[in-house]
Design brief:
Layout (H helix, E strand, L loop, with lengths): L19 H11 L6 H4 L3 H14 L8 H14 L3 H15 L3 H5 L11 H14 L7 H10 L2 H23 L18
Helix pairs in contact: 3-9, 4-5, 4-7, 4-9, 7-8, 7-9
């Protein structure tokens, strides 16, 4: 088991057997179990429900392109200050966009030319949704409707809500990042 610096809620050293299929996939893909499992593992049934939820949102027939999903999830992770989520979602964004450029620019997306108008509309919506309480003015909604169908907006809303759940859970419990995504510009380290 990985060591954690004095966590206020201790991670599980031994995970429930019911999570074995998921942990086996994580070990195969990442070489180790991802940190959040050691906290979510106390609630395996709920963890499986959350995993099914994100699995549905990440399905191939989603109304949202994979790169947009990763972009939005990365930005929500940053807004919620979730170290693990920023790490994991930055890796996904780098893989799906083919470089580290967007990863490095997403925090200041309003000042970057790397994002098209549809991406900017989705990012503005994600930030507005992630505020407490949500801050969604008519301009943000109209911009979103310009680029996305009602089906896509509904999926985007579910995706942002999911990422807020995940990021807030992980941030509240101080779940650390795992160095999944290099912060450098060399895409070979992604």
């Amino acid at each position: 088991m990985q060591f954690y610096d004095n966590p206020w809620v201790k991670p599980l050293a031994k995970l429930p057997i019911t999570l074995s299929p998921l942990t086996a996939l994580q070990k195969k893909h990442f070489g180790h179990v991802l940190n959040p499992v050691r906290w979510w593992g106390r609630l395996p049934f709920l963890f499986w429900l959350v995993a099914l939820f994100v699995g549905f949102l990440e399905r191939k027939k989603s109304a949202l392109p994979p790169s947009l999903r990763a972009l939005v999830m990365t930005r929500v992770s940053q807004v919620c200050e979730c170290a693990f989520c920023v790490d994991a979602n930055s890796l996904r964004l780098a893989q799906r966009s083919g470089s580290m450029e967007k990863v490095m620019a997403v925090a200041a997306w309003q000042d970057s030319s790397l994002f098209d108008d549809a991406e900017c509309a989705a990012l503005a919506y994600a930030e507005g949704m992630s505020a407490t309480p949500p801050q969604l003015n008519d301009d943000v909604k109209e911009q979103l409707k310009r680029y996305y169908s009602e089906q896509a907006i509904t999926e985007l809303t579910a995706l942002v809500a999911f990422q807020n759940l995940s990021a807030r859970f992980n941030a509240a419990l101080d779940i650390p990042s795992q160095g999944l995504c290099s912060s450098g510009q060399d895409k070979d380290h992604v």
